[in-house]
Structure formats: C-alpha cells, structure tokens
Amino acid sequence: MYDYIIIGAGSAGCVLANRLSEDPSVKVLLLEAGGRDTAKEIHIPVAFSKLFKGPCDWTYFTEPEPQLGNRSLYWPRGKVLGGSSSINAMIYIRGHWADYDQWRDLGNPGWGYTDVLPYFKKSEKQQHGASEYHGASGPLHVNDLCSPNPLAEAFVAAGEETGFQRNADFNGATQEGFGLYQVTQSGGKRHSAAAAFLHPVMTRKNLTVRTDVHVFGIYFEGKRAAIVSFQQENGSVQERAEREIILCAGAIGSPQLLMLSGVGPAEYLRQLDIPLVCDLPGVGKNLQDHPASGVVYECSRPVSLASAEGLSHAVRYLMSKKGMLTSNVAEAGAFIRTSPQCHVPNLQFHFGVGYFVEHGFQKIKGHAFSIGPTLLHPYSRGEIRLRSSNPLDAPSIRANYFADSRDADVMLQGVKLARTLAATRAFDQYRGIELHPGPGAKDDNALRAHNAKFTETLYHPVGTCKMGQDAAAVVDSELRVHCVEGLRVVDASIMPTIIGGNTNAPTIMIAEKAADLIKNGSSSRPTESYAESRASR
Ligand SMILES: Cc1cc2nc3c(=O)[nH]c(=O)nc-3n(C[C@H](O)[C@H](O)[C@H](O)COP(=O)(O)OP(=O)(O)OC[C@H]3O[C@@H](n4cnc5c(N)ncnc54)[C@H](O)[C@@H]3O)c2cc1C
Q1: In angstroms, how far is the first alpha carbon of the chain from the final one?
Q2: pLDDT-based confidence at residue 184 (cuts at 50, 70, 90)
Q3: How far is the CA of 80 from the centre of ligand 1 (A)?
Q4: Pocket of ligand 1 (CB under 6 A)
C-alpha cells in the first residue's frame, strides 16, 4: 500500500519522488517503463544522440506533416530513469519572465514569474553561486561548459558584430542576446533529473522505484483515482494509492494514459470502446513544440566535433573529464526579436559545434558548424490521439508545424539571419562553403523550401494536459485533473503555452512547485469553479 504512486521517472517524476519521500512517514512508489540509466552514452555528454532510436528512447514519429512535405518527423523521448533529461542536450534555460506572467494571467494564480522563481532557485546548484536569480544549494548542478569549443565563441562574437548584445546569463535579468549556454552537468558528466534528484535518495526505505514496468492505466472508484495497473515481466499488476496518483509520463505519455483510463474527449473515447470516466475535451489537444531549421557550413579548420571520437579525446576525458567529450553539441545560442513589434524574443539560435543534421544521423567527412534557428512562440497547435485502446500502441502525434503561416515567416527570418551571422568577420577563419541550404538557395521561396525540408523538432513538446479553467483545460492551477479526484498531472504537458526556451528546467520547476502544493496540504479534489463553469455552458 502506497500513499502516492508516481507514473514516470522523468524530469518531473524524479523531483517528486525525492520531495514527497522527504517525509519518512509517507510511502511513495515510482513506476518507470524504461530501465536503469546505466548506458555510458547517457553520462558522456557528447554522446547523447547515440541513444536515439535505442532502448532508452520511445522513438516516436509524427503523422505526415502537411507543411513539411508530408514528412513523418522523428521525436525522441527518454524511456529510462531520468526520462528525457537522460537523453537531452543539457542546456539550462528557464524561459522569459513574461512566459510565466502569461500563465498566471490565463487564470492560473501562483504561476507568475515571481511565484515560480523561488522554485527554480530551490532546485539549482549554480556554479557561480547564489544571487537574486540563482540558487546554490539545490540538487541540480548548473555549470559552464568545461571545455567550450572556439567555434562557440566565434558565434557569440558574430552576434556582437551584427549588433546584438552579449549575454553572460540567459537566466538572469535579461534573456536577450548572444552567449554560451550553461549546462546540467557535474564534473564533466550529465546531471540528469535522476542523477540530481533520484539516485541520492534511492536508499530511502519509504521510496520504492520499479523500472521496466509499463503503466497501462488508472482505475477509478467512482470519480476517485485509486489503482494503477501496469505490466511487469509478463503479468499485469495493480497497486493502490491511498492519497494520490501523480501522472509524470510527459507530454505524450500523460494524455495517452488519461485517455486509456477514460478521461478525455467523450465522443472519441466511445469510438475506441473505452469506458468514459470523465469527458475532458482538452486531453491531448494544445500540443506545442519548438521547430528548428539549420544553416550548415563546412569548417575550414579542424576544430569541430568531427575529431571527438579520436583516441586522444577519449583519454583526456577518462583522465580529467574535460575536452570535446564534455560538449553538449549546441554550446552557444541566442535569443532575439525579429521585429520591434515583438515584446519578447521570438527566435532562439542553437549553435552546433559540428555537423548536426537529422538529429545527428547524417554524417559527412570533415569539419562543419551548424546554426539552428528555432521558433520560440509558435501559433500552430497540434494534437495527441490514441490509435487504439491498446496501451502498447504508440499514440498518433500531429505536430502541425507551420499550420499557421506566421510561424513559417519567423523561420524564414531565422535562416536569413543565420546566413548574416556566418558571413561576419568572426567566422572568417572557420567558414567553408555553405552545405545547407547551399549557395543555390537565393530567394525567399528557396529558403522556405529549405525550411520545409529541413525543419525538425527541437524536442520540446508541451501543453497536452494544459493548466487552466477554460473548456480546454485538463488540470487546475494546483495541477489536479478537473472532474475527478486523487489525480494530478505534473510534467511538461501542463504548460498552457510553451515557454520561450528549453523545457527541462521549467519542468523541474513545475515538479518542485507541485511537491510543495501536495506537502502543504492542497486537497486532492479539484476546484469547483471548472465544474461550475462547464455546467453553466
Ligand atoms: C533529445 C532531446 C534533447 C533535449 N534537449 C534539451 C535541452 O538541452 N535543454 C532542455 O531544457 N530541454 C531539452 N529537452 C527537453 C526536456 O528534456 C523535456 O522537456 C523534459 O525532460 C520533459 O520532462 P517530463 O518530466 O515532462 O517528461 P520525461 O522526462 O520525458 O519523462 C516522462 C517519463 O515517463 C515515462 N513513461 C511514459 N509513459 C509511461 C508509461 N505508460 N508507463 C511508465 N512510464 C512511462 C517515460 O519513460 C519517461 O521516463 C530535450 C529533449 C530531448 C528528447
């Protein structure tokens, strides 16, 4: 018998397992479909893309994307202790303060920037010490890169030469400008949510962690979520939660499990013969992601990650945990506004110190660098749906990239600006020929065609169990699922709007705040106002 059952040991699940089990009188069960995080490619930072399409990855694909030449895009998601934080690129970014004020203003009290800043600080162990914006005594190590590549510095200099400011701290007073990213690494190794929050407390007697258990669904007693059903080895097992079940299965897994359990759009669940517990039309809707394109150049000096697999780098890493193997590939970046009408940055750059095309699957001989414009605030919305009532079937993912043409327009500005940056004096000593889109792409049509062919996910799906009080909301501002009891969703899926930046630190913040809500006695019943507002419609 457990007090809390947490489904999914990803970025959010690891935080909750740690914080809820701080009280020795509380019994916590953490269930994870993937295995232990023992693969060496998890821990050696530069190797993360070698985990793609392997046992630590759910290896999802979108439906054919109409605006992207009907390509089905590959979406990696972590299936291992640490979840996606065990396979991600380790960039530590919180987003813009205005993102959180927007969440609050959408009807979510307690989620404004000044409300959430203490939770970012609580989780953080910042290399440069505590300050107004940073914490230094949390579990998650946030460090400068051990051995930044000279190409990354050239990118920042290119930004300055183009008229942008240098920014030494994207998570401080201002987000805008060019700079090197900080990373979630400790001693030259990845510091995933599992490394930071779970492994240090695995010996707690009141915390049980089960790996390789695929959760099939939740059973309700009346409207109360009571039992979790999962597959272990070849049998089906059930466990009861005395207080609450907490879904932390991520932006794809959480809506999938809600629908499999009978919580979702009624009409659609009926079509799949799934008994209805609660008609929540917003489950799986409101899918948002950051699409990224690429402008790639040959590098005329042998400094890029093309050398990373050489013996000397392996030896250096083994001896000192320094050198190229500590690279997170996207070492530098920028946040910019493409027009004076934008009040906050609408474009981010990820600068790759090597050839990073098609998630690293495409290879070339020789050296290269990659500039990745990334759309921060897409207007397009996608959707997650079940293909069937079989929990082992991957859900259907429609990202709908560029369904709103304003998104494609910003990305067009992005590739143009990437070319401007590459043409600066800062890159003179490195710039070889343009490999993608290539010198033949001379006008806007050619650049738009390049974006349609080249755009991929930047791995940030969110929003599919959004927080709010409107008809499409799935959880309230205390993350309780509307219209049932004893069930919360705590992960990237609750974001009502995607934040302007990478999503790991914000997800960890969400879990820190949720843990406090739960521990401070937030009732497991959702607020009445949503039910009332639905009844009155
Ligand atoms: C390749 C990649 C690169 C990225 N790079 C960055 C970056 O550099 N910086 C950044 O900030 N963000 C990055 N992100 C995004 C960031 O890692 C995610 O937004 C964040 O980890 C999401 O956390 P989560 O808790 O919502 O989900 P996850 O961390 O994905 O956790 C969900 C967990 O639930 C488990 N689960 C799902 N379904 C079930 C089930 N049925 N039964 C049992 N368990 C289940 C999963 O296996 C997983 O462990 C990246 C993501 C990827 C994939």
Answers
A1: 40
A2: very high
A3: 9
A4: 7-13, 31-34, 76-79, 83-85, 87-91, 93, 214-215, 248-251, 253, 257, 459-460, 491-492, 502-505, 507
